[in-house]
Amino acid sequence: MKIAMVGSGYVGLVSGACFADFGHDVVCIDKDQSKIDALHKGVMPIYEPGLDALVESNVGAGRLSFTTDLAEGIAGAQAIFIAVGTPSRRGDGHADLSYVHAVAKEIGANLANDAVVVTKSTVPVGTGDEVERILADSGAKHRVSVVSNPEFLREGAAIGDFKRPDRIVIGAEDDFGREVMTEVYRPLFLNESPILFVNRRSSELIKYAANAFLATKITFINEMADLCEKVGANVQDVSRGIGMDNRIGAKFLHAGPGYGGSCFPKDTLALLKTAEDHDSPTRIVEAVVKVNDSRKRAMGRKVLDALGGADKARGKKVALLGLTFKPNTDDMRDSPAIAIAQALTDAGVKVAAYDPEGMEQARPLMPEVTMCDNSYAAIEGADAIAIVTEWDAFRALDLGRVTELARAPVLVDLRNIYKPEDVRAAGFEYVSIGRG
Q: Are 395 and 402 in contact (CB under 8 A)?
């Protein structure tokens, strides 16, 4: 089957490469000429473990190609995926659907055969209806079915998530759409991956509801961590104790500096706006958004407290280890590190930082932060070290060397990756999350 993937960003490129690996003939389309040129040279626009090898393999096999020409790319495609960005719209927080609508209009004007048009982008409820209208108004003369097929890819583990999914959600309104999508995902039938067929609006809402629920779990355990610090409990024990209940589950119960990334912040906000538009307010999600926003800044204050308080922090140096919102990605979008660094620099603190993959993306977002070549270069002369992202590279620091390099042995572990007794035995003042 020929598949066209319009948008060669995170979702489009990973999905396109995986579909090609299943044996489909895939064309990835993007307006950004420099991105397509780089892909032709084997240079990935994002960091995702294993993606470069997957792309190289399927390009070499002739199953994966790239173009900026949409008409050429969709010619003969039975399934055309829309995988463009839907960022928060400036001013009101709604999802910006301008890219989705523009692609739909261009598809309609250039479609030369029967096809299923699939919204892979995360879009609000009712977007598929609008895409259907745009296609009709754009002069599409062939049979078209508009389908919703949300992605559930975790950055850093996206290839595995695509090939071994928890579920595949397909929102279709007719047999044509269901039949084509069944063929698209037929290679996964051997793995018995569950495929859930629902109506289009239910599919669109499933994505937002899933992300909002996961964001709620993160925010809940972060609030429990604050309570643990007050009452002398250990949040890791609390997390294990409640996570062993299979009605709750252990995932997304790790206390930290708050959620970030490309999905949770914008998707929770978009869900709030959709709910408001339909006079069905989501009070829990509203609280989650507010609590998470305030938590990031609070983590900056936690580091300042480790320096002796904001009054004594001016002129001191902090080493930030980890800048991306999570490990195994270079994504800086809404990373807690941004708010933490801002809180520190606002207090007159000098900040040096290191991240294995995210520093190029971080530089324009943190102009006052000094980027270093490695962890120890950032630590040299520091009055405190703050672990912000739980990269493997930070899990086994040479604490003896850290003691020699740092001005003061103070470690603020915002991801709880160290055992308190080990760090304190090495002579450190140790601050963690929810382990009072």
A: no
Tell me the helix, strand and coil percentages in the chain, rounded to 5.
45, 15, 40
> What does the pLDDT look like over 107-135, one tens digit per residue?
999 999 999 999 999 999 999 999 999 99
Per-residue exposure over 9-48, b if at least 16 CB sit within 10 Å of its own CB, e if not: bbbbbbbbbbbbbbebbbbbbbbeeebbeebeeeebbbbb
Confirm if 3 and 77 have CB atoms less than 8 A apart.
Answer: yes
Q: Which of 7, 63, 15, 55 shows the shortest CA–CA distance to 35? A: 7
Give the contacts of 273 (CB within 8 A, at least 6 positions apart). 92, 93, 94, 95, 124
Inform me whether the pLDDT recorded for 93 exceeds 90.
no
Q: Which residues pair with 412 in a beta bridge?
A: 386, 431
Verify whether residue 228 is a known catalytic residue. Answer: no
Active site residue: 28, 228, 263, 372, which one?
263
Length of the chain: 436
Q: Output the pLDDT for position 294.
A: 96
How distant is the alpha carbon of residue 145 from its chain centre? 29
Residues 6 or more apart in contact with residue 112 via CB below 8 angstroms: 74, 75, 76, 142
Of 409, 413, 412, nearest to 426 by C-alpha is 409
CATH number of 208-289: 1.10.1040.10
Confirm if 140 and 171 have CB atoms less than 8 A apart. no
pLDDT score at 151 = 96
pLDDT of 234-292, one tens digit each?
Answer: 999 999 999 999 999 999 999 999 999 989 999 999 999 999 999 999 999 999 999 99
pTM: 0.93
Q: Which fold has domain 296-431?
A: Rossmann fold (3.40.50)
Domains 208-289 and 296-431 share a fold: no
2-198 CATH pick, 3.40.50.2300, 3.40.50.720, 3.30.465.10, 2.130.10.10 = 3.40.50.720
For the chain, the domains span 2-198, 208-289, 296-431
